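Table 4 source record.
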Amino acid sequence: MEFRFESIEYDKASPSLPKHSGVYKIFDIHGKLIVLDKSSNLFERFNRYYGERSERVRDLDLREITARIEYLRTDSTFETLYVLYRERKKHFPKTYRKMRTFRQFTLMKINRKQRFPRIYATRQIKPGVDYFGPFISRSQFTRLKTTLERTFKLRPCLYNIRGNDPHPDCLYFQMHTCSRPCNNDIDRLHYRADVQDSIAFIEGHDDQIEQGIVRKINDLAAETKFEEAEIVHRKLEKLQRARHEYKDTFFSVWGFDYIAVMGSDSVSRCKIAFIRRGRIVAFEQYEVETLKETLAADLSRVCAAPGEQQSGESTYDEFCLVANFVIDPLRSVDLLPMRDVENLPELVLARLQQRKRKKVPKM
């Protein structure tokens, strides 16, 4: 879907714009972009810029320097933010992230390319590394980081651990709060298994971890290794205690596959954004009558496309844009996971019918 701006040549009269939400651009007499912003009511915003002036009004007066105005009407907050983000990135590629188009979040980084991975906080995304979020505050991130390190004994130290290089001066080494891979107390294979369990914990797959632990306990008990089975059982108790203390779960950026269902200018149409591996890969408008067939075809196309891990600011930016609607859900935007793709068009139609019934006034 193309986002086409309507253009108005400014002739010193108050421009006539719709009383609707949208994104607008104002160019000066030299053709330079001087304003790029959004508004929930384009008519009122431009009336403040170009309407009658008074001493009480302190709004920006652009009447003498404006040559052209461009605007795009939008039908949802999601669409407004997405269009504004695209335009700011296009016109201000070096500074657009400082314009606070939407809230940005901290991510948890686990680089399994390291010999003995540890946990980082980051606001960048690179391919081949695992990222989880969104964390609305640094304290929320720190609490989960501490929980993972204590539960799965991941190393919090900053050393470049290769094994067979003990650090007795390290506080974590002395207190045995990590599994001490530097001292060869654990090999790489078992350490990476703990990392995998910690990732499952982040995403809320506790059953997967518990099944592995219970299976190991049963195997040890069958071999009459009861002391070792008791040690493993303590891991299960520690896991359950950790979940009781920390209930939040988070998304993996590379597994973040959703569609965002939005309203349009008519109840007979809707707009849908396709989110694949954290990025918005398509933005389309559909007729409700033919949505079942057309959406099914587009879902098959999007899912069949190779989902490569992409680096750069775009993946982080677009993941944060969608995450804003996860943290603060809106009735005008439905986020639906792309899991059961065959039944997803039916689910979208059901959501649209629910919205339609809510708009009908009660007699």
